[in-house]
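[INFO] parsing input record for alpha-1,2-Mannosidase
[DEBUG] input buffer:
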Amino acid sequence: MARGSRSVSSKWRYCNPSYYLKRPKRLALLFIVFVCVSFMVWDRQTLVREHQVEVADLQKTVSDLQHLLEELNNRQGGTVGKIDLRRKAKSGKEVLDDPIDVERREKVKEAMLHAWGSYEKYAWGQDELQPQTKNGVNSFGGLGATLIDSLDTLYIMGLNEQFQKAREWVANSLDFNKDYEASVFETTIRVVGGLLSAYDLSGDKVFLNKATEIADRLLPAWNTPTGIPYNIINLSHGRAHNPSWTGGESILADSGTEQLEFIVLSQRTGDPKYQQKVENVIAQLNKTFPDDGLLPIYINPHSGAAGYSPITFGAMGDSFYEYLLKVWIQGNKTSSVKHYRDMWEKSMRGLLSLIRRSTPSSFAYICEKNGGSLSDKMDELACFAPGMIALGSAGFGADDSNKFLSLAEELAWTCYNFYQSTPTKLAGENYFFYSGQDMSVGTSWNILRPETVESLFYLWRLTGNKTYQEWGWNIFQAFEKNSRIESGYVGLKDVNSGVKDNMMQSFFLAETLKYLYLLFSPSSVISLDEWVFNTEAHPLRIATRSEDGIVGNINEKQKPVPRIGGRKEGRSG
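[DEBUG] output buffer:
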């Protein structure tokens, strides 16, 4: 018998419904509630941490108690009132809402209110807040990036007043006619994705109309000989080009991370042109897709050929692989999107060739590849990979599914230790692995990135292992200790010294706080059976694709979602 199990079992005999079946009195009812709730609180940690195998039995017990309470109440004419100890998922399955989880997500919500309130006070309508100097900056051309990035987070957290104020700004003040050289990638994942998510959640067509407007301004970027897009476009006059520092090449992640948003836009509007543009990119890349599924980060938009450049799951490579999986999921895994899954599986087998383990502690990590040689370096950006691998693992056969899920868990442990290995308990930008030294921080800044908590969210949802919640809570506390100031949240110039920078990245509100909030929310909140997250953590509805790959206008099917109480620039690639 496990330590402590006897005392737990003996106490819980009082919560056996049969004990009271012949006592349908109000005293019995009140006694049930008092004793059971007391024991639920008293032994919560013991039951969850030492007796996870009993959780299912505990849920059944609570369900039985609920039925008994209702039966006793009915016998007494309904005078006691309904006592609901459960939370219902959409499927009807009963799930417990852990009191500790409730407390923690409220703390995360308070952090969101602090971040949002600071933005509202000092940088309203501008792209990002500089908290130390208490002013706004237009890092993305003045499109209100933080505001749009935050819409779905506000909605999911039930912050109605803040959401409505932001909605009015979108409706009345958002202007895309800017003489600004915009990143197609950043504008797509933040602005198109943020607006589409707000539409999918709320059903408010002002968001869909604005998403369509900005997407139309981005479309000329795909007018290349191959259809592989240029990565920069002027929002006012529509001239597109690539950055000079790439030598005229297009970036893999920047060209392969618009598929979700533009496919969804075609589904919501019934106009196939958006979907056709982005799916052609994948068709072009698939013509010469290598057997190991690993592409260099530079692609020639005129020929479609891959340039001689690094292969990485970090900056400039990462979200291309992520979207191969997520387009398959968003299309409801039908045959019309199977080629995305096939390409992703090739890439995952290629990823296995990049895995090494450190000494002496055997931390698994993903190398970068240059030509035929591997570099023992891993970006924190690549910490999205454990979540991605876990999310896709169920699509393999049993043996491979277990193998990839195990790898995801190993990589998540490494990423968590990126945080735990520094004095501030916040991760640096990248890490090097030297023989006998495990991990050493390289670039030592932290800009409030979400990738590790993103993966912890997926692993918790998919395995139910509360360890991932504990790791996420530790990371949240480190942000609170090191990054929170009176006027918002800031990154660190150095995770060793704790010296602060002067920027609250928009993805902190879009991603980091959203994933932390969902980490402590029931799995019915933005269910992975109904939603897929873009690379900026904007949830988009899953919609079945027909055999010809086209989905008609599903506008009429949109219903508001009930609320409960990339890798980017600054994260480039």
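[INFO] The longest helix spans residues 99-122.
[INFO] shutting down worker
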